[in-house]
Amino acid sequence: MSTRPHVYAADLASIRAAAHRIGGVAHVTPVLTCAAIDGLAGRKLFFKAEHLQRVGAFKFRGAFNAVARLEPSVRARGVVTHSSGNHAQAVALAARILGVPAWIVMPTDAPAPKRAAVIGYGGEVRPCEPRLEAREATAAAVVAETGATLIPPYDHADVIAGQGTVGLELFSQVSSLDAVIVPVGGGGLLAGVTLALRELAPRVRVFAAEPTGADDAARSKAAGALIPQTDPRTVADGLRTSLGALTWPVLRDLVEQVLTVDDAATVEAMRLLWTRAKQVVEPSGAVPLAAALSPAFRALDGIGRVGIVLSGGNVDLDRLPWAA
After folding, report:
1. Residue 7 three-state SS
2. Domain containing residue 278
3. Which among 51, 27, 30, 88 has a CA at the least distance from the CA of 270?
4. Which of 69, 79, 205, 231 is the most buried (most CB within 10 A)?
5. Is residue 252, in this structure, part of any structural domain at all?
């Protein structure tokens, strides 16, 4: 068996380069605190407010970095992606800023506000069935039709480096964190943050958080092998995707544990963020807080200061999860 260290998709140098590239375009998001929620968690929580990022989600970081990295002649032909919403919006806005066309493949069950935002940013929406295979096949067909470049939602080195700037900023904003909890769907955000902190602050314990109804990361971690997502059922629509070939090794090797939470806990965490912290966060973004409040995490010793990545705030106000 080889003893060579694994070469991951990004490192601190590529993440710092991404930070320079997106500087002045992406927001440096604040870190928020809430004493009332700290009391419930029994720890000091620091919320990295990526729901206040452009397009309302961290996804803008990776999308802009990836599109900006393309050679000008390639970029001019446009970009394609497939996404249920946040990455779709991010690629559409990045393309508009950089003056190139964007074709966005979206499943028919994607939240209406996210679809409307993509159109508002100038992206051309191509609908597909709500299955990963359909998304990928439709995107491949659009690439063949247009000659545009595919910008995947998470399994892409430049996307991962861009998302890693979340960890870079968090490290500069909050000192002496004991742990960070990051939501995981495809794993781009988790991989980027983990790879940034691996070099910046290796003592910080990194945890992933995901819904029990879409728990491929937890099952993969337990099995030591990548298990694809097959039938996700969760209110957290941004976390229904499978891990990728580039993101899985990071979770496998460098993430301490995957914490799973049911939808009831996620909705309660979302309500807490709305009512106590006054922050409009979508279900996927509330999953890490639900994990921080879970018995499994509360039972861990040696953790007093925790970074929580609130990944997005794009909520369909006509379909709130607590509405009758």
Report:
1. coil
2. 12-58+156-319
3. 51
4. 79
5. yes
What is the DSSP code (8-state) at residue 176? S
- Positive or negative CA dihedral for 285, 286, 291, 293? positive
Q: Quick check: is 1 in a domain?
A: no
Contact criterion met (CB below 8 Å) for 15 and 196: yes
User: Per residue of the chain (324 residues), what is the pLDDT tens digit?
Assistant: 344 568 899 999 999 999 999 999 999 999 999 999 999 999 999 999 999 999 999 999 999 999 999 999 999 999 999 987 889 999 999 999 999 999 999 989 887 888 899 999 999 999 999 887 898 899 999 999 999 999 999 999 999 999 999 999 999 999 899 999 999 999 999 999 999 999 999 999 999 999 999 999 999 999 999 999 888 899 998 898 899 999 999 999 999 999 999 999 999 999 999 999 999 999 999 999 999 999 999 999 999 999 999 999 988 888 888 875
32, β-bridge pairs:
47
Distance (Å, whole) CA 19 – CA 14: 9
- What amino acid is encoded at 157 in this protein? A
Residues marked active site are found at 59, 84
**Do both 77 and 206 map to the same domain?**
no
pTM: 0.94
Q: What is the CATH number of the domain that holds 47?
A: 3.40.50.1100
